[in-house]
Protein: Proteasome assembly chaperone family protein
Organism: Candidatus Methanodesulfokora washburnensis
Amino acid sequence: MSFLKLVELKKVDLKDPVLIHGVPGVGLVSKIAVSHLINQLKAELIAEIYGDLIPLPDGNAGISVDGSQLEIPSYRIYHARSSTGRSLLLVTSEAQPIPWGQYQVINLLLDYAEKLGTKLVVSLGGYVTDEGLGVYGAAYPEEMLDEMGIYGVKRLTGGYVTGAAGVVVGLAKVRGMRSICLLGTTPGSLPDPKAAMMVLSVLEQWLGVKTDMSELVEMDEVIRESTKPKEVKTQEVEGKKEEGVPYHT
């Protein structure tokens, strides 16, 4: 039998809380977005879930060591407020729960969120598609997508939302909670701050979650620069030709 425990670190007064879930996934879109919100809004850690279903980033059990501090893998739940004063429960981790444990971890998370009065669950993620750039969504009830269209969210018309990003909105629906998955388009091969910014832009318009995204812009520029193919100087090419290196066009 699995070991799983939620530890409440601090009690806070909440106003119409919304849970925003973001753990590592395609393009690290959701992880980047929620980490950005935690840092920008100076969110406060209020609870943790830990157990043998939540591994280290490499999939193993154990601890991480940072300087003289050690940390056990966990789902961390932070509290912050939007510009309208609404409470935000920001949930993240360094790794997704193992596949066969995701339902148990998410179920415990939603138990806690419901106890705090949460009626809306938002899951963030990345989406690899050739349908065009943007933010795509799936929601319960479906009518939520009519509202989200105002913010440029496009409807997902098929396929799957895998991992914890899908499980959290699926279990929220079972409980009758309003829930939506917001997916930013990404190639998925590298961390994608640009896709995270698209998702954050929707949250800003919808929930009043305003932040300074300049750090994400810089992060995106660094990643793009580091992946550019290196240019070969003309002199170097000519020198190699003189040395008898074969070239093909």
About this structure: The radius of gyration is 21 Å. Residues 240-249 have pLDDT under 50 and may be disordered. The chain has one domain: 4-242. The helical segments are 29-40, 102-115, 144-148, 164-174, 193-207, 214-226, 234-242.
